[in-house]
Each structure stands twice: as C-alpha cells, then as structure tokens.
Write a structure and sequence with these properties.
Elements lengths: L8 E3 L1 H9 L7 E5 L4 H17 L4 E7 L13 E5 L5 H8 L5 E6 L4 H9 L2 E6 L5 H6 L2 E3 L7 H5 L1 H4 L24 E5 L11 H14 L4 E5 L12 H6 L3 E4 L4 H8 L4 E4 L3 H8 L4 E4 L16 E4 L9 H15 L8 H5 L2
Parallel strand pairs: 2-3, 2-5, 3-4, 5-6, 6-7, 8-9, 8-11, 9-10, 11-12, 12-13
Antiparallel strand pairs: 1-7
Length: 347
C-alpha cells in the first residue's frame, strides 16, 4: 500500500518498507493501546470501527490497565488485555512479556506505561502519537504529531489516513443514534466532572437550571445523576420543589444512559465523560469550558454541538450559558419556537 505522509509525520525506513509491501489482508493481529477514562474511550470508538473496515480479517486486541475499565469498548474488539500495574515487579514484568507478536501496534495513549508496553511488545510496525520527538526513533516506525485543537475522535483517525483510508462522516461510533427533530422536549444537565475545577459550582448550576426552566417553560429540565456516590441531585431539591418542569433522573447504567440520551433535545454540561457519550450518540450538546481546551472535545462536522467559553479564560456566567442554549435550541428546533414569558409580558 502507498504511505500517505509528508513532513507532518515521522516515518522510519522499516515502517515505509513494511507498509509498501504488506497487503492489508496479510494483517492478522493488531494491538491497540488505550489507557484512558470514560470520555476518551468514547472518542476511541470511531477509530476501532474504521480499523475494522480497513482490516476486516484482523484479530484486534485492546490493551488497558485495571484502573481504566469503565466504558471499555469491548463490543468493537476481539480481546481485552489488562496490563498488571498493582502487583509486584515480577507480576508486572510477566504481564508485559505475556503478549505474543503482532503485525501492527497502535499506541494511542503516550503514557509511561503505554511506552513501556510498546517497547516490550514485538510488532512488525509500531505507530504512535509521541509528545516528545525522541520517542519516534526509540519506539515507533510511524510517529504523528498530535493536535489538541481538533476533536479527539478525528485526530485518532490520522493513523489510518497514513494508509490511505477514507473514514466515514459523520463518524460512526457504533452507538444508538439521536432521534433528531423527534427528540422529546427535554434539556438534560450533568453538573459533575472528574475534578471539581472542571465544572461550575452547585450554586451556579442551581441558578442556571432554575433560570432555564423559567425561560424555556415548554421543556422538561432534567438533572442527570452520575454513577459516583457524590454525584447526586440533592442540591437541586429546592428548585425541583418550586419548578414543576424540573426533575432529577436517578443513576443509570451505561447502556440505559446511551438510549436515554438519544431522546433528549440537548445536553448541557462541562468537560465530562457524559458529554463524550452524548457526542457518540450524536446528541446535541452545549459544552461549558474554562479549564480545559474546548476544541479537543468539540466536533465541527455536525452543527448541533456548541461550546460556551470566554476568550479571557474566565468562567462563563449564567447569561452566557443561557444565551448559548437559546441560540442552539433555535438552530436545532426552529419549529418549536414559542413566545417566551418576557415576550408575553411586553404585550
């Protein structure tokens, strides 16, 4: 196959020779290293779908570690390898040496553990996203420059573009798909994040949800509880008591959550795994960013995702978020537009 690279990529002589002489049908065993949390696993799904399209006969093994098991895309792979990281040095060494040789290895993580596994695993060709150029000559035959200014799921597909693959758009996550204009009049909110500095305070969320419920009275406003014990909706109890169109959705498992997400009109949340689940189901999202780079989690190939962030890096206020929500609902569901309470008051 032709190698589709230029000065944007590192390519070793061994890598070029192997790619040019190896027909895709001869690729029998592939290792994908991805040691990450919930949201990043969602972003990995299109890569695995397209990898299967490019190498339909290959046996695909996904390597992770025990701390990152939630939302592993086991439905898209043939085998899961969990690298030992908790035992003694002997157990960890045996774990590293337990994998048999592969035809291709993709390191999608670029962590200390993934680099060690890459080094210890035998493969005809190794491809990676090194943040440090030194890793190219030490570890990889193909090294791509990673950008965080494009949606993560698209960036991962660059590996397959090296081999001339044409990914399908919109990206295929192999997940339930949003109902579009038939979605229920539900605005969902997920006010939690992996760390508290990535999300608004509970008080800010309380004010936002009550204001949105008062403005968009024709919608149900539902706070979605998370799977952690501290991710409950108790802090919204007073708003639920005051507003008849505000409620709390109890915790759901991942499969039920994905199906439920396809029926809501829009999800409002910060940088969270739940937002990545919404992206994977093509559910409209309004993302709130102030700590993390928004572009990495903001697909631009679909017009129903919006990001609220301020150029000076300040935390978006209630007015900023409500304005973004208003514009997004109008763009997505223009047929639903009704006079707002403020409009009626002026008559």
């Amino acid at each position: 196959m032709k190698v589709w690279t230029d000065k944007c990529a590192y390519l070793s002589r061994r890598g070029r020779e192997w790619l040019e002489r190896a027909p895709s049908r001869e690729v029998q065993r592939i290792l994908v290293i991805r040691q990450c949390a919930f949201g990043d696993y969602m972003a990995t799904r299109p890569f695995l779908v397209e990898l299967r399209r490019l190498f339909p006969g290959a046996h695909v093994t996904l390597a992770t570690v025990s701390t990152y098991r939630y939302a592993v895309p086991e439905d898209l792979i043939d085998e899961l390898f969990v690298q030992e990281t908790q035992g003694g040095l002997g157990a960890q060494w045996r774990s590293l040496r337990s994998l048999t040789p592969f035809d291709m290895l993709f390191d999608l993580a670029d962590t200390a553990r993934s680099r060690l596994l890459t080094f210890m695993t035998s493969a005809s060709i190794k491809l990676g996203f090194p943040y440090r150029s030194l890793s190219n000559r030490l570890l990889y035959d193909v090294g791509l420059r990673r950008t965080n200014y494009h949606y993560e799921a698209e960036v991962l597909l660059d590996f397959l573009k090296v081999m001339g693959h044409k990914p399908r758009y919109p990206l295929d996550f192999a997940m339930p798909c949003h109902l579009g204009s038939d979605a229920e009049r539900i605005i969902a909110y997920f006010p939690f994040a992996s760390s508290s500095d990535k999300s608004l305070s509970f008080d800010a969320w309380r004010q936002l949800i009550e204001a949105a419920a008062s403005t968009h009275v024709d919608y149900q406003h539902v706070l979605l509880e998370g799977h952690k014990a501290e991710e409950g909706g108790e802090f919204l109890a007073e708003v639920v008591a005051r507003q008849g169109n505000v409620s709390v959705q109890p915790r759901m498992d991942l499969e039920r959550l994905a199906e439920w997400m396809t029926r809501v009109s829009v999800l409002v949340c910060g940088d969270t795994g739940v937002r990545n689940l919404a992206l994977a189901t093509h559910t409209p999202t309004l993302g709130i960013f102030f700590r993390t780079l928004p572009y990495r989690y903001w697909p631009r190939y679909e017009n129903f995702h919006e990001a609220v962030f301020l150029r000076d890096g300040a935390t978006p206020g209630k007015a900023d978020i409500l304005h973004g929500l208003e514009e997004l609902l109008l763009r997505l569901y223009p047929e639903r537009e009704l006079p707002r309470p403020s409009d009626e008051d002026g008559l």
